[in-house]
Amino acid sequence: MSNLNTEMIEKYRNNFLKEVTANVEEGEWVKMCMQCGVCSGSCPFGPHWDHPPQELFMMIRAGKREEVLTSSSMWMCTSCYNCIVRCPRGLPITHIMHGLAHYADRLGMAPKEQPTMKFAHKFWDNIVKNGRVNELKLSLGVYFMNGIAEGIKTSLKMQAVGLGMYKAKRLNPMEFFGGHTVKDKSGMQAIIEKAKEIEEAKIKKFEG
Amino acid sequence: MAKKEYSFYPGCSSQKGASAANYMVSVDAMCEELDVQLNEIPDWNCCAASIGYAGGGELPRLAMSARNLALSEQANPGQDVVATCAACWLATKETQERLHEDDGLMEETNQALSAAGLNVKADQNVRHMVEVLIEDFGYDELGKHVKRPLEGIKIAGYVGCQTNRPFGIDGESYENPKYLDKLVETMGAEPIESYEKKVQCCGGALAFSEQDKSHELIKGIIEAAYDGGADMIVTPCPLCQANVELYQDHINAKYNTKFKMPVVYYSTLMSVAYGKDAKQAGLNGQIIKAKQLEEIAGK
């Protein structure tokens, strides 16, 4: 169990709703859900959630901390914003799902092999490094994220797609050796570091 | 009409050799015809897209977009920020709105930006290119520039998610926005009014991590275009374009379908209708060739 996780359990005792309100992006909205289920019915990945958003909201209020944070559900969010525009109570559901996923991950509670979590981390590391997406390295990184054997299999499957993109000048093999970047990399990274620092300090601050 | 200028945020996928490089080519051609000058934000960075949430968290993500806004304020003061990518537009506009809704967030963001000697006010409008077309020009004006109407082509307007939700375009409904259909009509082509999957999600970034689940959605999007009698699909979003065009062979192999549906940008259609040649319209960037457009562009 991560230190931060132990710390948060002690801090918020059994009040998981309070913990979510304080630490999850837009978490203060969770208490507003009226359990109508429109979000669950509107989600393009709906059938693939163990617990759709409406259920997660109720579970948070019921204090089911472990079940919520270890769930793969919120990692099914495709960021389509259907739930947001349809929610009669105006909950920013997409952001709450992102926030829950991020928080679970921060505490070390997210399912270890969750593919979207692995991809999302690769994406973030990719952009922080150079300030702009290196599409080639990102794609290759994703193909190989489950090991060499599966990586080779996926790369072969994607070969025709890659070749088509190369011919259409929409993929540049030279990206492997560098690629697009921002000029002021150190400035951009300093901003991100500072932002992280501020956010971490906020979570550590006791608000119980 | 006098020249119009905007502070431009092209985004990662629009760069040379990137997956939507052809989008940028056609946007340039379209803007040339409309006398629009795009002043690129110097040294802009990635917006972190939606999928940046896992590694990024709230403030680091907002700070990335805030850096772009701050650079825009320095270099292109007073100009609306315009993005062509749906995700870039969403992330930047959301940042702009949230900084104003929450004073604490504004303060923290500026604290982070000060690490690189920057400061943000976030007081410009953040707009998608299609908003510029519809609001600053209007369909009538856009139609006046048509030199080669796209006669006889049936086009399914695939709006997708992030140019439609949560902000919407021109006050249109989230469930059945009409702007792409109107643009198609303005260019002389025939919109598929009954296109059922107009605002369906393509899986977005999860097309990388959850391929099978996403391919099922993409299959529906293409199938509905065929059902409506479409010759091609048009979209305003680089990720929609890529997801719907690139995986058709995989989907054919899996579902025993015979899809070969071209997927183009609104700016591709407009460039061709405005008399640009195939290269200027970015048609060589099509992996599934849009032959009818090539024919018109070759005339």
Keywords:
heterodimer, A: 208 residues, mainly alpha, Fumarate Reductase Iron-sulfur Protein, Chain B, domain 2, 2 domains, 11 helices, B: 299 residues, alpha/beta, four-stranded parallel beta sheet, 14 helices
Describe the protein's architecture and organization:
The complex is a heterodimer of chains A (208) and B (299). With 208 residues, chain A is mainly alpha-helical. Chain A folds into 2 domains: 3-111, Alpha-helical ferredoxin (Fumarate Reductase Iron-sulfur Protein, Chain B, domain 2), CATH 1.10.1060.10; 115-195, no CATH class. Chain A has helices spanning 3-12, 16-23, 38-42, 53-61, 65-69, 82-86, 93-106, 115-130, 135-143, 148-167, 185-204. The two termini of chain A are 21 Å apart. The model of chain B has no long low-confidence stretch (mean pLDDT 97). The longest helix of chain B has 18 residues, at 58-75. Chain B is globular, with a radius of gyration of 19 Å. In chain B, helix 3 (58-75) crosses helix 4 (86-101). The chains are: A mainly alpha (208), B alpha/beta (299). At the A-B interface, helix 6, helix 7, helix 8, helix 9 and helix 10 of A face helix 2, helix 3, helix 5, helix 9 and helix 10 of B.
